[in-house]
Write a structure and sequence with these properties.
- This protein is mainly β.
- Helices cover 13% and strands 46% of the residues.
- The chain is built from eight helices and 38 strands.
- The strands form ten sheets. A six-stranded antiparallel sheet has the order 21-22-23-24-25-26. A four-stranded antiparallel sheet has the order 2-3-4-5, with no helix packed on it.
- Strand 23 and strand 24 form a beta hairpin.
Length: 534
C-alpha cells in the first residue's frame, strides 16, 4: 500500500493504538529526542484565544501550531539568532532574538512585516486588542510599539534591575532575581508575592496575574497561587524546560531537546507533546498525547518508537498492519483495549519478527537510467515476504524477496539471502529506500537508504524513462469442482481488457504495453509470483 495513503489515514483519524496502562507490556509511544539533536525551545506563547501556540528555538526556528489538532501550520526563520521572547495575536507574531531585534511576522506565510532593531527585549505581549506590542527591555524599561509598523509610542524608565527572566500579565510583571520570584504591578509596586526556588530556569504569569509557573534546572515545574503565595501544583518534566506560558488552565513548556508540552494546570497531567525538526528531505513534525493519539507530517512518525517487552520498534515498521482501511475499521468499531494490546503484542512477537536488511551496493547501468541494487537479508522467525522499494520517499514497487535471491546460505544459524534487482531512476539524486516484510507482510524492517545520482537529463526523460506497462490477465473458465459452474465469459472479458490497454493513441504514456496471460490451470500462486518478477 502506498505509504502516503497510510499516513493519510493516520492523520485523518489520529488513531490511538496504545491506550494501555504502564503495567502492560506495551509502553506509550515516545520521541527519540536524544537522536534528534534538536535545538531547545527558548520561547513559547499562546494566541489571544488559546487556540494556537508559537514556539521559538535556540537556532532561530519559529513554528506555529494548531493546539486542537496538534498540527504544525508553518515554520520559518528570521535569522540564525536564538529566540528569547514571543507574543502571538491573531495571524501575527512578535519575536525577539538574542541579538536584540524584534521581528513581526505574518504567520500564514512567515513573511517579515517589519523589525525593530536594538529593542533588547526579554518579554513581549500584545496589548489594546493587538494594536500595541509591549516590551520589557534588558535595562528594565517598558516600551510600547505600534503593532502595524514598529514605531515607538511610549517608553517608561526601568523599575527592575539585574533580573533574569520575566513574563507579563495584563497588569503585572513576574520576574526572577537570584533565587527569588517577584511579582510587581506595571508601575513596579511590589505585590508581596515572592515564591522562592533555587536555579530558576524560566517562568510565566497568567493573563490575570493570579497564577505563576516556574521551572527549575532539573525540570521541576511549580505552579503558584500568587494571591495567597502558595504552591498549587508540581509537575516533573522529563527534561529541563527553557520556556513557559499560561493560558486559562493550560501550561505550555519548551524543553532543551526541542519538545513542546501542554499540561493541565488543574491536574498537572500532560495533554500533548509536539516536536518539529529538519531532515534532509525537509521539515517534519509530530504531535502525540500520552494515550498514543497522534498527528504528524508524512514522514514525521518515522521518529516514533514503541517498546514491547524488551524490544524497540519504530511505528513505521507496523504501518501495513495498523493503517490499512480494514484494520482501522476494526480498531475503531469493535476492538477492545485488551484486544488491542494482544494485537500489538502478537505483531511484535518473535513469530512475526521481520527480516533484517543491509544494502551492500548500488551501481548505475551504462546509460544511467537504472541502478542495480544488492542487499543482504537475514531471515528471522517471521520469515520473508515482499521487499518494498521507494525512490525519493515515493513508493515505486514491491518484489517478492524469494524471487530476487542471488545466493542463499546460513550464517550464525540464520537463513540469509543475497538479493539483487534493478531500480528505475529519475533525473538527479535518487534516494532509494528498501524495507523487508515478514511472510505475512504485516511487519517490516527499518527502512534502509542509498543515494544514487542519475545521469539522465530532464530533456531526455521521455526518451529514456517512458515506462513500460505490464498487464497480467488471469481468468478461470473451467473448474474441476462440479459444484462451481464453468464461467466461459471470464477469458473473453480478460482478452477484451488486454486489448483495451494495448490500444494507445498519439502521445501515449507508455513506450510499450506487454500483455501477460494466465488461464485455467496456470492460475497458481507460484506462476503469479514468477509473472510479477519477470
Amino acid at each position: 500500500m502506498n505509504k502516503n495513503l497510510l499516513y493519510m489515514y493516520a492523520l485523518i483519524l489520529t488513531l490511538s493504538f496504545l491506550a494501555c496502562s504502564p503495567k502492560e507490556k506495551i509502553e506509550p509511544v515516545s520521541f527519540q529526542a536524544s537522536a534528534l539533536d534538536n535545538q531547545g525551545i527558548s520561547a513559547v506563547a499562546f494566541d489571544n484565544d488559546g487556540k494556537y501556540m508559537i514556539t521559538g528555538a535556540q537556532d532561530g526556528t519559529i513554528s506555529f501550531w494548531d493546539i486542537f489538532s496538534g498540527k504544525q501550520l508553518t515554520t520559518f526563520k528570521n535569522s540564525g539568532n536564538g529566540i528569547n521572547a514571543a507574543a502571538l495575536y491573531a495571524d501575527k507574531a512578535a519575536l525577539s532574538d538574542i541579538a536584540g531585534t524584534i521581528y513581526v511576522n505574518n504567520l500564514t506565510t512567515g513573511e517579515i512585516l517589519f523589525k525593530v532593531d536594538s529593542a533588547q527585549s526579554k518579554a513581549l505581549r500584545y496589548e489594546d486588542d493587538g494594536k500595541k506590542i509591549l516590551s520589557l527591555s534588558r535595562d528594565g524599561s517598558l516600551k510600547y510599539f505600534d503593532s502595524s509598523n514598529g514605531d515607538l509610542l511610549e517608553s517608561e524608565s526601568g523599575g527592575i534591575e539585574d533580573f533574569g527572566t520575566a513574563s507579563f500579565g495584563s497588569e503585572d510583571i513576574l520576574y526572577s532575581k537570584g533565587g527569588d520570584i517577584i511579582l510587581v504591578r506595571r508601575n513596579f509596586e511590589n505585590k508581596n508575592f515572592a515564591g522562592r526556588n533555587k536555579n530558576i530556569e524560566t517562568l510565566a504569569l497568567s493573563i490575570d496575574g493570579s497564577c505563576a509557573a516556574t521551572a527549575e534546572d532539573g525540570g521541576l515545574i511549580t505552579l503558584w497561587d500568587t494571591a495567597n503565595d502558595v504552591e498549587i501544583q508540581k509537575i516533573q518534566s522529563p527534561e529541563k524546560e527553557l520556556s513557559l506560558a499560561i493560558y486559562g488552565d493550560m501550561l505550555l513548556s519548551g524543553s532543551e531537546h526541542g519538545v513542546t508540552r501542554l499540561y493541565s494546570i488543574e491536574t498537572g497531567a500532560e495533554i500533548l507533546s509536539c516536536i518539529g525538526f529538519d531532515t534532509e528531505d525537509g521539515s517534519e513534525w509530530i504531535s502525540i498525547t500520552p494515550a498514543g493519539f497522534f498527528n504528524s507530517s508524512a514522514n514525521g512518525s518515522d521518529l516514533f518508537s514503541i517498546k514491547v517487552g524488551d524490544k524497540n520498534y519504530f511505528l513505521s515498521q507496523f504501518s501495513e498492519a495498523l493503517f490499512n482501511p480494514e484494520e482501522l475499521k476494526r480498531r475503531v468499531t469493535t476492538r477492545s483495549d485488551a484486544e488491542e494490546i494482544n494485537f500489538i503484542n502478537d505483531l511484535a512477537s518473535d513469530k512475526n519478527s521481520p527480516p533484517q536488511l543491509k544494502i551492500t551496493s548500488a551501481v548505475l547501468n551504462e546509460d544511467g537510467t537504472k541502478a542495480t541494487v544488492k542487499a543482504k537479508v537475514n531471515v528471522y522467525g517471521g520469515g520473508s515476504g515482499v521487499l518494498a522499494v521507494t525512490n525519493n520517499r515515493a513508493f515505486q514497487r514491491a518484489h517478492v524477496i524469494e524471487g530476487l535471491i542471488e545466493r542463499s546460505y546460513k550464517e550464525h544459524g540464520l537463513k540469509c539471502y543475497d538479493i539483487v534487482f534493478n531500480v528505475l531512476l529519475k533525473p538527479g539524486n535518487n534516494k532509494i529506500g528498501l524495507s523487508a516484510f515478514n511472510q505475512k507482510n504485516k511487519v517490516k524492517s527499518q527502512e534502509q537508504f542509498v543515494n544514487v545520482v542519475s545521469a539522465i537529463k530532464t530533456a531526455d526523460i521521455d526518451k529514456n524513462i517512458k515506462p513500460v506497462l505490464h498487464v497480467l490477465l488471469a481468468a478461470v473458465t473451467d473448474y474441476e469442482n462440479p459444484k462451481v459452474p464453468n464461467l466461459t465469459y471470464t477469458r473473453a472479458d480478460a482478452e477484451a481488457l488486454g486489448t483495451l490497454f494495448a490500444k494507445q493513441v498519439d502521445g501515449a504514456l507508455y513506450s510499450e504495453v506487454v500483455i501477460h496471460k494466465l488461464y485455467d490451470t496456470n492460475v497458481t500462486r507460484e506462476k503469479f509470483i514468477k509473472a510479477f518478477e519477470d
